Amino acid sequence: LSDRLGGILDKLTRRGALTDADVSEALREVRRALIEADVALPVVKSFTDKVRQRAIGHEVVKSVTPGQQVVKIVHDQLVEMLGSDAEPIDLNAPAPLAIMMVGLQGSGKTTSTAKIALRLTSQEKRKVLMASLDTRRPAAQEQLKVLGEQTGIDTLPIVAGQTPVQIAGRAMTAARLGGYDVVMLDTAGRTHIDEALMAEMAEIKSSAEPHEILLVADSLTGQDAVNLATSFDERVGITGIVLTRMDGDGRGGAALSMRAVTGKPVKLIGTGEKSDALEDFHPSRIADRILGMGDIVSLVEKAAREIDQEKSAKMAARMQKGVFDLEDLAEQLKQMEKLGGMSGIMGMMPGVGKIKKQMEGANIDDRMIKRQVAIIQSMTPQERRKPDLLKASRKKRIAAGSGVAVADVNKLLKMHRQMADMMKKMGKGKGLLGKMMGGM
Ligand code: GDP
Ligand code: MG
After folding, report:
1. Within a domain: 125
2. What residue intervals traverse the membrane (predicted)?
């Protein structure tokens, strides 16, 4: 697939902003990749619509094609939608805290119950009790007991003839008496979603009041993923998703579908049958897998990095000479935005504590950086090189052009003056700042 995409994309090798045609052409391939990865169709549609809006007009990085640029935008949007940070299981509640596992039969609930219990025991040092509420399959409770013996985790003793709700009640009482931190409630599934299953889950939920309700789903779940996730979420209310069988050849499109319709995070992924085959969910890795175009993404990232390095090197050279005009400031601000905002950067530089404090006082965040860049962009090239030209009438024009107050323009100019002074001093000294900027 990457080859096919590459072929089409190579035809379009020019720089500039992405046009409607570039985006449409690349998105056709992206759509196919998403469908091959089992992403549900309505999600494919809403996702590509979102990407289209974001991509058109976006600048193409030097040395990549427009199509490659679109793939990178798609990837970033995927990561964003999948949830940018790995979200752990929330253990922030008084003990004993219940974690309820729900899902269809064969999705991997019982296996994942033991995996999570093992992880909470060994990594989080919690005392965990596992209980099977699966009274439907005769061997189900036995299966969990065996897993408990294998992993060394306690299971609730099996008592015949109890309902799931009764077992849940007994598990919570046993946990309270036994000083357990966490109770894992493994429930029974069905081959398909039905009212009886939902009613049973809702009943268990209201009696055990679990802190987490994790929907366990096979990563090969295709178009059903939306219905599955919506039903469980609407009827029972899930707090997260566990995606199993990621060791197979499933591309994991279900992760995107389920996340998109419920907004609930994928917290963990199962990568094998063994009790330690459980991993944190990494949105970027799954995005690569769903898209199947990881090579293109890293290519574009590399190209962007090279350009940043070129720019930094140029700027460092200027600073060594003590030159720092508003054009440089704008460039610097853009870099800072990329690297986590002003305070992040200033924190990396020694000897700039005072300015840093002032900036914190001025509450410089990403939005502020964008505004400052806009102010500079409203100036003429001449003004950027010679800020001294900026008298009252020009300031008014610039403020109007960038939608800010004249006071904001003044603030920016003051900041520039301070930074320019600092650059001059340091540039004449050991060139420390220049070196630091060069290394950025
Ligand atoms: P349940 O009906 O939802 O409780 O499903 P089980 O936990 O009993 O799992 C059904 C089957 O799937 C078992 O044979 C498990 O070993 C297997 N299984 C569960 N999770 C994974 C996984 O992440 N990878 C692989 N390869 N197999 C898994
Ligand atoms: Mg089971």
Report:
1. yes
2. none
What are the tens digits of pLDDT across the range 133-148?
Answer: 999 887 999 999 999 9
Q: How far is the CA of 289 from the centre of ligand 2 (A)?
A: 28
Which ligand 1 atom lies nearest to the CA of residue 272? 24
Greatest alpha-carbon pair distance for the chain in Å reads 88
Written in H, E and C, the secondary structure of 310-353 is HHHHHHHHHHHCCCCCHHHHHHHHHHHHHCCHHHHHHHHCCCCH
Q: State yes or no: pLDDT of 434 exceeds 70.
A: no
Q: What is the chain's length?
A: 440
Mean pLDDT of 350-358: 53
Q: What is the CATH number of the domain that holds 433?
A: 1.10.260.30
Residues in binding site: 103-110, 186-190, 244-247
187 CB under 6 A from ligand 1? no
Q: Is the CB of 272 under 6 A from ligand 1?
A: yes
The model's pTM: 0.71
Residues flagged as binding site for GTP: 103-110, 186-190, 244-247
Q: Check residues 369 and 45 and name the one with the higher pLDDT.
A: 45
Half-sphere exposure of 227 (CA within 13 A, CB side): 9
Q: Are residues 66 and 115 in the same domain?
A: no
Q: Is the CB of 252 under 6 A from ligand 1?
A: no
Whether 102 and 126 share a structural domain: yes
Other C-beta atoms lying within 10 Å of the C-beta of residue 294: 16
Ligand 2 midpoint to CA 396 (Å): 70
Q: Are residues 232 and 101 in the same domain?
A: yes
Give the domain extent around 188: 97-281
**Total domain count for the chain?**
3
DSSP 247-286: TSS---HHHHHHHHHH-PPEEEEE-SSSTT-EEE--HHHH
Q: Evaluate whether residue 6 is within a structural domain.
A: yes
